[in-house]
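In the design runs reported in the main text, the only information available to the sequence generator was the tokenized backbone. The following block is the verbatim input for one such run; it is reproduced so that readers can re-run the procedure and compare outputs position by position.
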């Protein structure tokens, strides 16, 4: 499946995750993105401003292959990622979803 080359703006280093104050990382999508030690962009939090709008799906479709999703606990998000060519790999006990 083709994908884009969008990389979300990185969150300020050591900025706290405060519910309701997530950063805008794409149109209609709030969340958190940090640069990992391996050079991958980790997106541990993604929230639609309007649930059901399709904004999160479009966001995922637009992402570069450097973007990964650690610790996915939402079945809905896991299914969205899977449908878009992402698969989990396990780094110890942590799942990291990246493009297969």
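Verbatim output:
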């Amino acid at each position: 499946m083709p994908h884009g080359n969008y990389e979300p703006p990185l969150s300020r280093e050591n900025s706290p995750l405060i519910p309701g104050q997530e950063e805008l990382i794409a149109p209609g999508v709030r969340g958190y993105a940090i640069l990992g030690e391996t050079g991958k962009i980790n997106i541990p939090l993604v929230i639609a401003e309007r649930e059901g709008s399709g904004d999160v799906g479009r966001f995922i479709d637009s992402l570069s292959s450097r973007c990964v999703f650690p610790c996915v606990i939402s079945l809905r998000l896991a299914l969205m990622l899977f449908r878009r060519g992402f698969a989990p790999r396990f780094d110890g006990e942590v799942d990291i979803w990246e493009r297969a």
